[in-house]
Design a protein that fits this description.
260 residues, alpha/beta, Rossmann fold, 6-stranded mixed beta sheet, 4-stranded antiparallel beta sheet, 10 helices, 10 strands, 42% helix, globular, ATP binding
Length: 260
Amino acid sequence: MTLLSVERLNKKFGGVVAANDVTFALAAGEMLAIIGPNGAGKSTTFNMVGGQLRPDTGRVVLAGQDITGQPPRQICRMGVGRTFQVAQTFLSMSVAGNVQMALIAHHGRTRDVVADAAALYRAEALALLARVGMDGEADRPIGELAYGDVKRVELAIALAAAPRLLLMDEPTAGMAPRERAALMKLTADIARGSGIGVLFTEHDMDAVFAHADRILVLVRGEVIAEGTPEQVRANPEVQRVYLGTSGHKAALRARRAAHG
């Protein structure tokens, strides 16, 4: 079942073409990675899907609904969650408190925050933290956590909106290799177990080739390849302009790790 359909998105900044007829689809429960060299148009495409940028032309359709150019808040209400390259959390609050705040916002009860914030959606927050393996840290200030654990909490925060689609911008940035692998495996397990589609940008080729179901390769705003990790890895044009020898070796390492 197609969850997200991106149809011929175009975006220019002055005379610079950032996206040129970008087209792809994402199924429910699928992990789709957008990769490419710096300046390829990854962030532009990602932000047009999330509502941070309005495309010049083209459409973004979520589960049959046209969401093109809608503001991020409205897109979130329609079932799109997002994590960021730098984790977005309230460092002075507890781990559970951060997730509770997301649940409060999702349920439209922000007026109750002053009186009842500590009690609102506590059980639901703990359940979400359990999904990401962080329920044991529920009452710790989030500012005390290691960065890899903060990224797990951010994932729980994104899940608080009960998304159908999850957008992840450089999810493993700033993390150690072992933490990267653990976070991406966790995300893949959640996505495939609950039918959430995941669209993510990533520079870590080990993470991409180990966990993406399909990969979209952008160069200078254009899609030059799309397919399974095996198909993209074997594509001569992708090898020439992006992966190169080191990327090819990283892809092989990731495949071996993913299959034990």
